[in-house]
């Protein structure tokens, strides 16, 4: 329930911001790869039965950031907002995020191919890196899957990390 409340707050603030933005025919690499940075406080309903943020909750915060990025890109491009579906996600937890901590989540587009869009996510408390994640997702519209070129991501732009990550996924699937 609290993620829905956070979503509606984020969406309302974003709509106000987007009203002041102009539309453009093409999205630049700089626009697409600009980090989405949001601050959150860990509240009681975020907690699991331990005294730190549970693993599954990190993914909910990631969803808020990616949704914010996608809404902003679609608005700037002047197209209807797309949906997205996670194809793969991985997290590395370095330190626990505790109850009432103020955390910052930075999400950034790091690459794409002909089918998927790739993001890196970094969670901070103060200036301490707490966890790092990667997500791979497919863009969707009412008709089904869309290629990333709908948002001007043409060709492929893959890092070594993404290539290795994809090879690992293929190995896991074929095992």
Topology order in helix (H) and strand (E) letters: HHEHEEEEEH
Q: Decide which structural class fits the backbone.
A: alpha+beta
Biggest sheet architecture: 6 strands, antiparallel
Helical residues, percent: 25-40%
The chain-level mean pLDDT equals: 85
Number of strands: 6
Written overview of the protein:
This protein is α+β, with helices and mostly antiparallel strands and 175 residues long. The chain contains four helices and six strands, in the order ααβαβββββα. It has helices spanning 2-19, 29-32, 55-77, 160-174; strands spanning 36-41, 83-93, 102-112, 117-125, 128-141, 144-146. Strands 1, 2, 3, 4, 5 and 6 form a six-stranded antiparallel β-sheet that branches. Strand 3 (102-112) and strand 4 form a beta hairpin. Helix 1 runs parallel beside helix 3 (55-77). It starts with a helix and ends with a helix. The relative contact order is 0.16.
